[in-house]
Amino acid sequence: MSKPIQNSSAELANRLITQVIQACKNKTLKLEQPNNIETVCVSHIKRFMERWTADPEFQNQVAVEPYKTIARYGLKVDPEEIRPLWDLKFLKEVGERVPISASLRQWHEFFDESRVCELMQSIASSSSEPRFKAWRERQIARTRSQFKKWLQDTLVHAPVCFELSKGCSVGCWFCGVSAPRLGDIFIYNQENAKLWYEVLELMKEILGPAAGAGFCYWASDPLDNPDYERFCSDFHEVLGIFPQTTTAQPLKDPARIRALLKLSRKKGCLLNRFSILSLKMLNQVHEEFSAEELTLVSLALQNKEANKIKANAGRARERNLNKGEEDNEFPEQGTIACVSGFLFNMVDRSVKLISPCNASDRWPLGYIVYDEGTFSDAHDLKILLERMITDNMPLTVRPNDLINFRRDLKYESLTDGFQLSTKFKTFKFRHEPYLKELGEVIHKGGKTAEDIASIFEKHGVSPAYTFHNLNLMFERGVLDDEPKPKVVKS
Ligand code: SF4
C-alpha cells in the first residue's frame, strides 16, 4: 500500500534535516581545529575571493605582484594554485582546459552555497499541508517565468519567516524591503516566550518539517534583538533546524557574534551571512575575525567598489525612480524577497501571506501580499491561518473564480491552441482546436470558471473537460491570482 503524501514528504524532510546536520558536523569538526590543513586552505581561498570581489585595488596589486600582495594581506594561499580565480589572461589562453588544483576543488566542495540552498529548497517543499504545498508550487511556477534563472535557482521560497523587532537600526540606502527605523523589540519575557513557542509549534503542526526552512528576520536585523539567540534556540528545539542568520552588524559586538556562530555550528546550521556595507567595514571584519572563523559565513558584498547591482525594490527602487529610471519589466533582480508563505511580525502579532515578484508600483517591496491579519494568541492565529489557507489556496479552480491570464503574460493565438509567454518562458497549450477557443474566451476576460464551462458545454464539451484544462493552467501558474487593489471609497 502506498504511503500518504504527507507522511512521505515529512519523512523526506526529516532525512534532509539529518543530512544537513551531519554535513555541518563534519565541517564543524574540521573548523574546531583551526590548523586543520583543509580549513586553512578553504577559508583562505574564500577570503582571497572576498577581497578580490570587493576591492579593485587588490585586483591590480595581485596582477602585478601576486606573491607579495597575498603575503601583505596575510592570506595563506599559493597564487599559482588559484591562478584561474584571478588571471584572466591565463584563463583565455587555456580556454576550456582550466587546470583545477586540489585546493580549488576542496574550496568549491566545502563552501558550496548552492548545495545549502538546494537542501533548504527541498526541506521547504516538503510541507505536510497539501493546499499550502500546491500554492507554493504555483508561486514557484510563476516566478520561474518572471525571474532570471540565477535568481530563481537561489530562491528558497521559504514557507515562513519572523521579524523579532519593528524595523531595523542599520538603515541601508538600498534596503529592498524598505525597513523602517528600529522601533519596538520582541523581548524574550515570559509572555512572549510562551507565545513564541506556541507559534512555532503551530507552524510545525500546519506545515510539518518544512517550517524548519524558515528564518527569524526580514525588514529587521537579527542583532537588534538582544534575545535573538534564545528565539533561535527555541526554533531549533521545535523545528529541528537552527535558523540561518544574516546580519549587517557583525562588528557591533564581536564576542556575541562569535558565540552565535559557535552556537549555530553546534546546532547544525550550515551557513550564515554578514552584509558588508563598505570597504572599510570589510577591512574591519577581516581584521576582527580570522579567515578560519568565517569559513561558514558568506559575506554579501554590498560595498560600492564591489559593483554589485542592487535589487530594484524598496529603497533602491525609490532612488532609481527619483533618478528618472523607470521599472524594467525584466530587471536583473527585482526583489530580495525569498518567502512564499507566512511573514510574521511578532511585535504587533501580525501575519501576511506573501510571495516574491518584481517590484512595481503595486508591489514596491518586491512581494505580493495575498492576505494579512493580526492575532492575539496561538488559538486565534490558528483560526487566522486556516482562514488564509482556505481562502487563498484551493487545490483546484473553483466554479466562482474569475479566470484571467496573469497580467505579465503575452497572449498569442495559435492555429491549434494558444501560448503565453514572458521573456524567460513560454507556456504552450495546443494540439486541439478547442484550446484555441478556450484561450480566446479567457483572454477576453471577465468570466468565471463556471461561465466558461457552460459556454463550451453548449458546443458539446463536458464541463469536467473544461475544468480539467483550467486546472492544468492553474497548476502551471499562468492564471491570475493577484489580489485586486482595494477600492478606496470617497
Ligand atoms: S538591508 Fe537589512 S540591514 Fe539594511 S536596512 Fe534593510 S533590513 Fe536593515
TrEMBL record:
One of its GO terms (molecular function) is catalytic activity. InterPro entries: rSAM (IPR007197), rSAM_PoyD (IPR030950). This is Radical SAM family RiPP maturation amino acid epimerase. It comes from Scytonema sp. PCC 10023.
